[in-house]
Amino acid sequence: VRQETINRLMVRAARRGKRVVRLKGGDPFVFGRGGEEALELAMAGIPCEIVPGVSAAIAAPALAGIPVTHRGVTPGFLVLSGHNMDAFDRGIQAVQPNAVSLVVMMGLAERASVADSLVARGWSERTPAAVVCAASTSEQWTWSGSLAELPSVDTPGGLPGVLVVGEVVRVGEVLAAQERSRSHNEVSYGRNG
Amino acid sequence: VRQETINRLMVRAARRGKRVVRLKGGDPFVFGRGGEEALELAMAGIPCEIVPGVSAAIAAPALAGIPVTHRGVTPGFLVLSGHNMDAFDRGIQAVQPNAVSLVVMMGLAERASVADSLVARGWSERTPAAVVCAASTSEQWTWSGSLAELPSVDTPGGLPGVLVVGEVVRVGEVLAAQERSRSHNEVSYGRNG
Asked: How much is the pLDDT for B96?
């Protein structure tokens, strides 16, 4: 459904006295066009309430053990979308290579272009990178490696995913390794006891 | 309480068989030291679950009507902390002026330094800027204006706040103006009818 159609449906239903809910995955103001919809309603004189959500920009990395910020590792994080590669390139051109954590939403299909664009802009090919698919679901799938390896990662089909690039990915790797080691020990204990 | 003490308390209580909850405002992985605590627990072999939250980085602007992303206005958003101005400066030096939306958490007390640092790095003094204090509470307080005006904003004392810098602030201003106009019309209707 085109955005213009959604806007028209919202306004029409509200004018008919309906309470309209635009229920979105994640946060409506993080690449969710919530701002456009709120403006459309404002122009039509229709009041609306914005309810913030848990954004995959932060939550998907977190559920893979990756903190978008980590003291001494990064001063902050930049969130871009991979949906429109022109906008992505503008965002990447605005930031110095390897200077902040980078989260790319809707960038799974374009992971090769994302990696190429970063390396072309001077990001080290050895920069840690991660893919987190279907975070919080039973199908959650995580890969981590380097920017050089990102283009050839074979991700599960049909799942939404977030890319994370930066040293913070290593925190997730340490946590995952400890978790595996702990689970392994528990299994061993179980066998012996 | 120092972070080291918190870490020690967590590990000690967990080893005594307690279930330990570190309940934080916002998201534990956005300047919340959640990564450090998770690593500490991992080193001690103690399993932990990370529960993502609604981060003020996104939600505080949203509750003031400001979308951190807006199609055609910004390719994305950068989140920095104003708690440590050295880290803030490193983050700002890494990004081209006026290229993305900027959210500064824990930057209220340092708003003058934040504004000076941005202008010194080439951000236009006319860049829209906003302060959102105590978002989501009955004390929520919002100001918006320009980067030039930010240092002299008189904010309510004792409330936490988030700074937002970038053209997206104007979306919040349009929404707020429409809301005021609508409320005014409703009052007029009330008087006449």
From this structure: 97
The pLDDT of residue B18 is above 90: yes
Q: What angle do CA A121, A106, A75 make, to 5 degrees?
A: 55
Strands of the B128-133 sheet, one edge to the other: A141-146, A128-133, A161-165, A101-105, A76-81, B76-81, B101-105, B161-165, B128-133, B141-146
Q: Which of A46, A49, A56, A18 is nearest to A34 (CA)?
A: A49
Cα distance between residue B79 and residue A102, in whole Å: 11
Q: Do B54 and A50 touch (CB under 8 A)?
A: no
pLDDT at B183: 78
User: Considering only residues 122 to 141 of chain B, which have any Cβ-Cβ distance to chain A shorter than 8 Å?
Assistant: none
CB pairs under 8 A between A and B: 184
Distance between CA atoms of A159 and A80, rounded to whole angstroms?
A: 19
- Which residues of chain A lie closer than 8 angstroms to B34, CB-CB? 62, 67
Please name every residue paired with A162 in a beta bridge, in sequence order, or none if there are none.
A105, A132
Task: With beta carbons less than 8 A apart as the criterion, state whether A65 and B50 touch.
Answer: yes
Please tell me the pTM assigned to this model.
Answer: 0.94
Matching residue, tokens 């349009």: B174
Estimate the crossing angle of helix B34-43 against helix A169-192, to 10 degrees.
Answer: 30
pLDDT mean over B119-135 = 98
* DSSP 3-state of A180: helix
Cβ proximity of B40 and A6 under 8 Å: no
The residue to which tokens 């309940």 are assigned: B23
Measure in Å the smallest separation between the Cα of A67 and chain B Cα atoms: 5
The per-residue pLDDT for range A25-40, each reduced to its tens digit, is 999 999 999 999 999 9
ipTM of the complex: 0.94
Residue A29: partners with Cβ closer than 8 Å, 6 or more residues away: A35, A50, A52, B58, B61, B62, B66, B67, B68, B69
Question: Which residues in chain A touch residue B38, judged by CB atoms under 8 angstroms apart?
Answer: 65, 67, 171, 175
**A161, A105 contact by CB (below 8 A):** no
B1: Cβ contacts below 8 Å, ≥ 6 apart? none
Length of chain A measured in residues:
193
